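Exam review. A common question shows you a sequence with its structure tokens and asks you to describe the fold in words. Practice with the pair below. Do the first one on your own.
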Amino acid sequence: MMMLTECLAWMDSMGWVGWLMPLAVLLLIGLAATALARLLFFKGNAVKGDRS
């Protein structure tokens, strides 16, 4: 397991991409968790339009 200083040094050596990738992954995980929570907990509360 990498220590925090080694991880930060590795990220810094990659330039801006090294900082963008972890942030993008965290954003995608957050969006997936939000979508899953909405699907599980708010599925029955959705307002459905009349299709007739």
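Now try the second one, then compare your answer with the model answer below.
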Amino acid sequence: MNTLNYLYQHGTLGGLMASLMDGTVAISDMLQQGDLGIGTLSGSNGELVILDGVAYHVNEEGNVHILTGQELATYSAVTKFVQQQTFPIDRLKDSQEVKQEILDKLSPNLFAAVKITGTFQHMHVRVVQKQEKPYPKFVEVARHQPEFETNDVKGTIVGFFTPSLFHGASVAGFHLHFISDDRTFGGHVLDFKLSEGKVALEELEEFRQHFPINDQDFLEQEIDFDSISKDIEEAE
């Protein structure tokens, strides 16, 4: 019998937008649920990249290090990645061209894991700065986030495609993070140009949403979906 492939997500981007930034799940717990993923640490601290079962953190200075597993994440999404379809990129393409090729191969109504490996002529990322209580709105943080760019870098993009129906739980469309092969550069992907590489995709049969049930702020705060939906579109 085939193993059910699923996306496991702790917390929501909607909660993050509503200033719910406390860390509520250990990285070690997320690694039990998957070997490829993304997220952010407590206080919306930097960018989390999970690749081949290893959790990397990119801080606001752009430095990359491996996490111990004891750190807490505010939001994270992972899957046990098994590629279902692949296709090569054999000439220079910008991010919109690559995304459109991916969309042509996916259902608009399923979550999908995305892994893009190769040589990038250009990579443009951002890294959210760590916040302290009382937490500001995430969209305000995003307006002042550090951005980094590099050229001719080998590395991997990991992330997910989310159907429009689930905007709020995550961001509708693509949510992608990058890490270089030498583990010195990474972050939340804003834009890129891919010189050559390979795209691997996995459509997911199930979405498992885990809530921070021990976080009193999450339990008590009412989230204005109309407001946070617009904030997600701006920030992501």
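Model answer, second protein: The helical segments are 13-17, 27-33, 95-103, 138-142, 216-220, 225-235. Residues 94 and 193 are 4 Å apart (CA to CA). Full marks require stating both points clearly.
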